[in-house]
Amino acid sequence: TGSPAWAGGAAAAPPGDDGAATGGVRLSGVRKSFGHLDIIHGIDLSIPEGAFTVFVGPSGCGKSTLLRMIAGLEEVSDGLIAIKGRDVTDLDPSDRGIAMVFQSYALYPHMSVRDNLAFGLKMANTPKAEIDRRVAAASAILKTDHLLDRRPGQLSGGQRQRVAIGRAIVRKPDVFLFDEPLSNLDAELRVSMRIEIARLHRELGNTMIYVTHDQTEAMTLADMIVVLREGRIEQVGSPREIYEDPANSFVAGFIGSPR
Ligand code: ADP
Ligand code: MG
């Protein structure tokens, strides 16, 4: 592939741009404080439509807080968030066209896989025939058809994580948000699920934002990496750019590139 439009540090949002230019996700001057503690210090970022973007950085740098603000699970203290050119800053999570993938333990243990997949759609009063269609489609993508009548407790860790991802797929979101979805799986399973998630992105083509503290996950999954440190962006670029031309010694040290 050629050099994408966002390459070369073109991450800062021009003033007044509401994200219409990208069709993806646009953050403009996004800040977050908890009480007197400033956690996110004014993030300007343009995430192109369809890109697999990874937020990476050490524990506590604000990755989850940033993702939760995009999801609408956390209010911004200042700034704007636009998705597909629409200002969603003050919208409820369910009105943003996003779906968040949580760790697999967020499944309902007393429900079958089928009911876990259908639950959100039922809550949204989706007609039964449409629910059945979407559950079948998601199961086909994730190869979980044979598991639909089981309970989460009867599944392996990897199967549970597929169902957790399936719950996002059935909602047909514009944007998928992942917060360290693989961090409670063992090393071998993490690798195979990483491959599954990459395949999912190729098949669906959605904008995906993926949070991890794991450099290998970032380097292997991302079209675009956003390196965060203490609530600020240190660098934005392709894995190759970040590796070969780290912006500073923090990025070089964190990604493990020679410098
Ligand atoms: P990461 O996901 O990168 O590990 P977080 O976004 O979870 O980081 O947290 C960033 C910082 O914000 C941490 O110092 C954390 O303690 C703090 N923080 C997160 N949520 C809250 C909260 N609800 N109240 C106070 N501080 C919080
Ligand atoms: Mg986190």
Written description of the protein model:
The chain has 259 residues and is an alpha/beta fold. It is 33% helix and 24% strand. It has 8 helices and 10 strands. The strands form 2 sheets. It has a 6-stranded mixed β-sheet with strand order 6-7-8-3-9-10, sandwiched between helices. A hairpin with a 2-residue loop joins strand 4 and strand 5. Helix 2 packs across helix 3. It starts with 24 loop residues before the first strand and ends with a helix. Magnesium ion (MG) binds next to helix 1.
Characteristics:
259 residues, alpha/beta, 4-stranded antiparallel beta sheet, 10 strands, globular, disordered N terminus, binds adenosine-5'-diphosphate, binds magnesium ion
Termini separation (Å)?
26 Å
Strand content: 15-25%
Average residue pLDDT: 89
Radius of gyration: 18 Å
**Ligand identities:** adenosine-5'-diphosphate, magnesium ion
Q: Give the fraction of residues assigned to helices.
A: 25-40%
Number of strand segments: 10
| SSE sequence, one letter per element | EEEHEEEHHHEHEHEEHH
Runs in which pLDDT lies below 50 for 5 or more consecutive residues are 1-21
* Structural class estimated from helices and strands: alpha/beta
The order of strands across the largest sheet is 6-7-8-3-9-10
Tally the helices.
Answer: 8
Shape: globular
Main sheet properties: 6 strands, mixed
